[in-house]
Amino acid sequence: MRIGLSRLGKRKVYKNQWIATDFITIILPIIPIKTYFITKNEHKQINKFAAKFDWISVIKGFFSFWFLFWGILFTLSPPYRYLNHYFGYSEMHDSRIFGIGFLIISMVLFLLGRFSIKGRLERELLHNAIEINALPIWLTIDSIKDIIKKIDAKIYFARKGVDYDLIETLKNRDYDKEMIPLLYAMLAYKRLIEKSEQIDYYYQEIRKQYVAQQ
Q1: What is the sign of the dihedral through the CA atoms of 53, 56, 58 and 61?
Q2: Distance (Å, rounded) from C-alpha 143 to C-alpha 1?
Q3: Strands 3-14, 28-40: parallel, antiparallel or unpaired by DSSP?
Q4: What pLDDT, on the 0 to 100 scale, is given for residue 31?
């Protein structure tokens, strides 16, 4: 840990992608700043997308390190004698018991929500399509728009530079099976910012076709 910004509270890990929160730290985490969805490729190149503030990530990042700190401090502290004024005698207390308790709590917080099963199929489908497996509901609108632009460029390339209209392409089934993963990803993100029955309908149709390919 250091003075500055640290990225903590890692959770929802799947295929080298996860959610984490940036903290202002002064040796230990002090103030949470922003949550991100992080991707890491085989070349260890890291990209981030702004995500909605994740309180579980914040709790993990903050308390796991504070409990670790207190756990180490109490574990290394020697036993001490405590004067019980009510009964008029002294007692020996071993703070190492508290230290071990704090260390266990720290470990539980560290593992809390680290690996998520919820939404695993959707993340797998998105990952196979665009190598980004963030569920749209986790991200900010700006991040969703950025990803849609990336998918649009991939579809344009797959169509060999031919312009297209998404709805017309879907309505006329003007696509091959290689484009189905990209269309699924496009609709998965687009339906979160363009609320319409038409988008939802085509999302379900393309999803069925995509799942059938797996």
Answers
A1: negative
A2: 29
A3: unpaired
A4: 93
Of the pLDDT bands very low, low, confident and very high (cuts 50, 70, 90), residue 94 is low
**CA atoms lying within 13 Å on the CB side of residue 55:** 0
Question: How many CB atoms within 10 Å of residue 74?
Answer: 18
Distances (CA, A) of 66 to 69, 112, 212: 5, 15, 48
**Of residues 68 and 203, more confidently modeled:** 203
Neighbours of 14 (CB within 10 A): 16
The whole-angstrom separation of Cα 183 and Cα 209 is 11
CB-based contact 78:103 (threshold 8 Å): no
Q: What is the pTM of this model?
A: 0.81
- Give the CA angle between residues 196, 201, 204 to the nearest 5°: 130
- List the structure tokens of 137: 């509901």
Structure tokens at 130: 């665009």
Torsion of CA 1, 68, 60, 50, to 10 degrees: 0
pLDDT digits (tens, 9 = 90+) for 39-83: 998 878 899 999 999 999 999 999 888 888 888 887 887 765 554
Angle at alpha carbon of residue 208, lines to 206 and 212, rounded to 5°:
115
pLDDT at 89: 47
Beta strand pairing status for 80-84 and 89-93?
A: antiparallel
